[in-house]
Amino acid sequence: MTDLFWFIVFFAVLGSFMGVGQLFIKVGLNAEWSRKTVHIGVGCFSLGFPFMFENRLTVFYLVITAISVFSLLRFNEKLSKGNALLGVERKSFGEFYFLAAILAVFMLHQEPYEYLIPMAILTFADSIAALVGVKYGRFRISHFEEGAKSGEGSMMLFIVAFFCTLIPLQLMSEVGRVEVLVIAFLIGILAAVIEMVFVDGSDNLLLPVLTLTFLRYYVNQSLTSIATNIGIMLVLMIPCLIIYKLTPVTKLSIVYSLLMAYIILLEGGVIWLIPAAMLFIMFGILPLMPKEERQIPLTYKVVECNAIIGICCLIFARLLPAYADILYLAFSLAFACHLIINTYNRLISYQQCSAVFASVCSILKAIVFISIPTFLFSELGNMAFIIYLLFLLLSINFAFYLTKKFNYPHITAEKLMGHQFFVGTLVLIFTLVLAQFIA
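Above: the chain's sequence. Below: its structure in token form.
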């Protein structure tokens, strides 16, 4: 009965805040203020979920119902006009991601603070950062193709996220005071980075989910372990700065790369980080980029294209630890294939090399800098290495096709999807073949 009561109250609260948002639009306030009114109001109410609902399935039904309501508001032409959630100019499905975040974090949390901290950061830090960025943002972090991200907004998000972590963790956990300060500082930085690199409202889901992941990792680690990981990341910043000077990689791409590297380091360790780091470091050198190539901005979408298949392999390795060795090779293969395709494109488009010379150089580059280091740490035998190399050689055919079909100087979404599709397909088949062979 209690669950039903709070179920009804939730929708009453939602309707009330949407009404206030509508009023803000009518009096001429910025549409972002209207949207964030609903965001903060619903977020504040949802912070009480661990203390309101006894059955987790009730929250599942609540979220599904709310998503249905929002879908009706978004896709019904009459209802969508002047809606508080749809008034912003940028394309966003943030309300759906927000509800998905409530459901995901509520279902996954084990301690109250594991729910309160991610949702408080999403409710307060993300909202305040967005409003500060819109009103006062002057220092632009992102390239114009990457959306609007300001340094002022990110700094405000860090400050609010720091306190959203510090207070619940100090009051509701047995973590030591020094550890709490360190964890709050790191969560603040990571929250600012996550909000910075994810757009179209997806940060509403990824910010709390990744915050929960990092939080759960940190509270179970010693200060020495945390400091070691931070030291590795500081070392990685040196090649990042060099790459930033030598290539047209954007500031946001550097931030995105460091975030991906940190996730890989925490989930896989140093040996998993090596293939990804080698792709990032070697992409724009051997040969160095000529002046005309450096005119093409390498946005975070390019980094995402090259990293997403490998990240999927890492996730499956954590979910299926019995296949971790196979998935490590699949992870490495994904980055090696991207290095071959990218290097071949560069040699053909800007160095005027022959197809044969470009093919040989691309394959040797991937073998030397990714494949060999991978097998130094792999526990699988020589036959696995032979299968790996055969699939690596197959990737050159994709390089032929992609170079002919797409104009390299113009990095389009279609071209990035082509890269992901071909590399993903190759890695999937490799994984299945190797799993069958090992079995």
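The first helix runs from residue 2 to 26.
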